């Protein structure tokens, strides 16, 4: 894909898998702040955390936060995973997401990581309550959540309706082990954010 067709902030040899909001312009930004987000898979289970406070409170997400000065994103991802869930995992880089939110002139740059094993027992912290979710196909692609049915396994389905709106576009790629990139410009709708303009793609 021609780099000029990509949303500002993304580069490389990428193949689009979904986009929306073509009638809007990409929001401009002058600064970037770096964050991490880590997803741990164990066989047919995915670990998510229910965020109890701060940005994204009351949503399920991976474990992550700000990259501190002097840290690499991989170091920050490991630190945040441990701080928020109590576990260690051999995290590998899986994707990059750029988010803008209405009214701010800076972009979230989120390095997303995944791991297929871990040590330690996921433990609730002040910030996050870890829970395992089913990775059956209907759970992962959001069919169970859309239809309000429980998963065919003994674990709950991935709760996309209680996650950031973008997650359903890239989480299945992460679980399949495909590298991805994406950008979403979010606007406030009542007390939640919705995507105004977005683009997600795979790394060739
Ligand atoms: C807009 N769409 C989004 N979709 C999915 N995840 C998103 C996100 N936007 C932000 N995130 C994640 O939200 C966390 C915020 O981090 P946040 O808790 O504020 O950081 P940190 O733990 O350093 O904060 P404190 O210093 O404790 O306040 C961090 O994992 C970041 O990756």
Any chance you could write out the topology, listing elements then pairs?
Blueprint: E1 14-20, E2 31-42, E3 45-51, E4 60-61, H1 73-85, E5 92-101, E6 106-115, E7 128-134, H2 137-140, H3 143-147, H4 167-175, E8 180-189, E9 192-203
Parallel strand pairs: 2-6, 5-8
Antiparallel strand pairs: 1-9, 2-3, 3-4, 3-7, 5-6, 8-9
The protein binds N6-Methyladenosine 5'-triphosphate (N6E).
Concise overview:
With 204 residues, this protein is of the alpha+beta class. It has helices spanning 73-85, 137-140, 143-147, 167-175, and strands at 14-20, 31-42, 45-51, 60-61, 92-101, 106-115, 128-134, 180-189, 192-203.
Stretches where pLDDT falls below 50 for ≥5 residues?
none
**CATH classification class:** Alpha Beta
> What is the CATH topology?
Nucleoside Triphosphate Pyrophosphohydrolase
Q: How would you name the CATH homologous superfamily?
A: Nucleoside Triphosphate Pyrophosphohydrolase
What does this 3D model show about the protein?
The chain is 15% helix and 38% strand. The chain is α+β, with helices and mostly antiparallel strands. The chain has a single domain (31-203), classed as Nucleoside Triphosphate Pyrophosphohydrolase (Alpha-Beta Complex), CATH 3.90.79.10. Strands 1, 2, 3, 4, 5, 6, 7, 8 and 9 form a nine-stranded mixed sheet that branches. Strand 8 and strand 9 (192-203) form a beta hairpin. Bound molecules: N6-Methyladenosine 5'-triphosphate. Residues 35, 37, 54-56, 61, 64-66, 99, 108, 110, 164, 166, 186 line the site of N6-Methyladenosine 5'-triphosphate. It holds the Pfam family NUDIX. Belongs to the Nudix hydrolase family. InterPro entries: 8ODP, NUDIX_hydrolase-like_dom_sf, NUDIX_hydrolase_CS, NUDIX_hydrolase_dom. GO terms for molecular function: 8-oxo-7,8-dihydroguanosine triphosphate pyrophosphatase activity; dATP diphosphatase activity; metal ion binding.
């Amino acid at each position: 894909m021609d780099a000029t067709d990509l949303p500002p902030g993304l580069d490389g040899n990428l193949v689009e898998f979904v986009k929306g909001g073509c009638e809007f312009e990409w929001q401009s930004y002058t600064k970037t702040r770096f964050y991490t987000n880590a997803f741990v898979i164990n066989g047919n289970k995915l670990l998510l955390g229910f965020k109890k406070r701060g940005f994204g409170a009351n949503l399920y997400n991976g474990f992550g936060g700000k990259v501190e000065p002097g840290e690499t994103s991989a170091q920050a991802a490991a630190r945040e995973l441990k701080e928020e869930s109590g576990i260690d995992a051999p995290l590998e880089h899986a994707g990059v997401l750029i988010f803008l939110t209405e009214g701010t002139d800076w972009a979230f740059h989120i390095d997303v990581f995944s791991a297929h094993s871990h040590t330690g027992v996921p433990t609730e912290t002040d910030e996050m309550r870890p829970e395992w979710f089913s990775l059956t196909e209907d759970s992962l692609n959001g069919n169970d959540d859309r239809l309000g049915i429980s998963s065919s396994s003994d674990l709950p389905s991935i709760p996309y309706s209680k996650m950031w709106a973008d997650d359903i576009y890239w989480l299945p790629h992460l679980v399949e082990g495909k590298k991805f990139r994406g950008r979403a410009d979010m606007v406030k709708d009542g007390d939640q954010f919705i995507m105004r303009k977005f683009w997600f793609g795979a790394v060739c």
